[in-house]
Amino acid sequence: MSKKEETTVSKRKKIFKGRNILLGVIALLFVIMYLQIQSMFGTFSFLQGRDSSLISEIGQIKESYLKLGSDINEVRDFLRMPTSNYAGFSDIDEGGNDSDKNTDSVQLALFKYVDYLAASKNLEKMLGENLTLLKGIEASETFSSFLTEQELNISKILEDENAYSLRIDSKDGLHLVLFYLAKDDGKLLQKTIQSKEEVNYENLEELEKAITELLTEDKNDLIKATKALADTQQAIYDAITSPETATVLEELEIDLTTDYIDRDLKISYSVYNKTGDLIGEIILDSKTSKISLNDLNDDSLSLEVTDISTGLIPFLQKLDVKTFIEKKADEAMKSLRDTLEDDGFKLLLSESGLTISEELREDDERVYYDIFDQGETHVSSIVIEKMTGVINIVQPDGANSENLLFFDPDFKKKTLEIPSTIPDYGDEVSRADGTFNILIAGKHGSLVDTMIFAHLDEAKRTVRMVSVPRDLYYNGRKINSLPYFYGMPELKKVLSEVTGYQLDKYILIDMYSFIDVIDLIGGIDITLTSAVIDPTYRTVDNGVEGTLHYEPGDYHLGGKEALRLARTRHTSSDFARAERQQMIIKSIQSKAQNFGFGDADTIYEIAKTVLSKTETDIQLDEAIAYYFRYQNYEIESNNVMSSGNVLYVPPYITKENCNKLIAAAAAAGEPRPGCENENQAYTLLPKNNNWNIVKWFFKQNFEEV
What we know:
- The protein is of the alpha+beta class.
- The chain is flat and about 95 Å long.
- 19% of the residues are buried.
């Protein structure tokens, strides 16, 4: 090989070597980048199990983000590519004319976090100092000797989830002084039956001196007053548990608790009616030992007594023990009776050829006013529901209740034109790419009472919803009972089969979580086009009791008010309630669209609140990802499966009417009818008992333009 050729080969080797080094460096940098990306994802996963401040977690995310961005820029610079600024989360100027407003979310978050640290540190310090004082008193030999001389005892420090406590008692076991150290605020309180005050001493010597002086000067008075209070409490207990009081409580169907609440130097015993409504109180003033009997429905009946044994029973007998619903039923009964006696109404009946029975029918659930035509044919009945106080119109067989207050002869149910031939979809379950299906369910008690099937189309960026009625009858039981017997996964599976659309996720939310979510996002705005009134739904706002009602108009609702609107159904149908629930979901989504990264703490708290109080197969990281992915999707349509479109109500006989048939047959000596084996519950089935019509309905709602 010539010298020139050797030189060429040598140059080629150097080039290959340099290129290999370059490629190796690039590969190494990308491996580092990959590991750091995995680290960042690990940080997100780590958030899922954390309950600490979100601001701290955001700091970890940003640190990983900036570190990754720095390394990416090194690679881009090495490859002679333009670099990017990763120092800020967004370069978008949101605009606005408020030049004094700080819009730096990281800075604001850091201020908030440092403030949290300072408060936590102060609480920890305060708790530590006051607990040291308590332990010092407990362990003090000089104080122990003083107590022995005074014939007093000191307890051990007791701890529960809320506080630490230490008690000083007389030799007879009377509680003279209580020290209470609350964990939530770090304050140390000193309480006797005559006073309650915060303890603020610099050291143990000052506290010991103050307690010593208190017990030296006031011991006898404290013992005397405490014994008098104990004697009065015993008298109250004896009066509450006496056989005479027990008889009255049973007759009135009320409950008077022997347990008491000791708060702000007042000891209170509660009186409840049969539905658990608080109707009265016995209040013992620990400073004066005076006893007050308070009627919470009528202040004029409240009084002070000196002898509880003679004053208690007359007080209980004067209480209005009726439940809210019973009062509503009484009002309804009075209104009906007044109407029946009205001359104008009597004239209307006469002109219409109708009569109303003078004798009332009554069973365990209803009071009936029967309406007859001239041929004495039973046309219908006006009934008062004893359990709710609602006045309904029912058919002669007692079925198909319709609220009298909302009767509208011009009202027409929503209808749907159903083709004469429905395709046989078989066991087909759609799992189309680019779609996401979630079941939003709600419950109050053991049974699910809300089921909304939400279909998200990622190509169209739309959401379509269909409410499934809880009374849908499938495979021998109402569909809303499946979670109770078999769990939510079974309901998810069955609804996928029934609708023909695969449910990807579900969430079962209770009413308390619903309230928290609405309040966390600052309430929702809705517009009602028709009135909603429910006399069975008792409300208490600012101490004032009332009937749930919303007139047509615009409303801003908090969590409690939104829950009322979502749950009420007594003055409308389950289908109307389902429409309101979908309206509320749309309003929640509208409010959520205003959240951005600057509201990350709110988003995190909402997700954590929902998932901590619900049953779901959605993880925390998934919930946050879904929020940002589907946040701005448009809710394009919503519908409700009902007897006005694809469902019908199969014949059924009420338990009441079945019992009447059995009694009539027995009186006539006829064979016993088998009605007790017939359908005795209101249910819904697909028309013509064809389950394909349900799948057709869902396809019409989810796929048709």
